[in-house]
Write a structure and sequence with these properties.
It contains four helices and five strands, in the order H-H-E-E-E-H-E-E-H. It has 177 residues and is of the alpha+beta class.
Amino acid sequence: MEITIIFRTFALLFEKSLMANNYHNNSNNNQQRPRTQNVLEALFTNAVNSLEGRSVSGFKIQFDLNTGEVQVYDDRETLLAKNVIFDWANRPVKDLSQCKQQTNSIRVALIELKRKNFFDNPLIAYPFTVSLTDENFMEIEKIFMLGDSEYIPEGRLMKNLEQELQNFYKKLLEDIE
């Protein structure tokens, strides 16, 4: 039980850190971030609204690097919603695995939607995942995951903090013994 409390505290701190980093790392934050986040939040809202009573346990995200078009598919690979983010068009990125800015923007939009209780919708089944996929629906990166009681965003920051968390657990277990 104590480990669950520690993990939840860690997840909340990570969420605040991720949101702060995403909003402060770009010189165009005052205009680009809110517009992009609004488009992404509307995209996911449209995706859930188009489910027509079907439950979904995950979204698969695809985007076109040339046009900036973002597509949301359900876990059955049915297109639910799409939109264009013009700020993402014609970026000098060669493949989807190099799209860190885009995946971080999607992650922040999903965290914001979670904060707004968006995922309390009865059509969303748990565990719920959002993954970046290629045109053949092969997973490139897991962007976001919701469990029954907490969410687990994945990404660069989580990997960097993993060692610190392991050290914390080791020290905690030593204190208990």
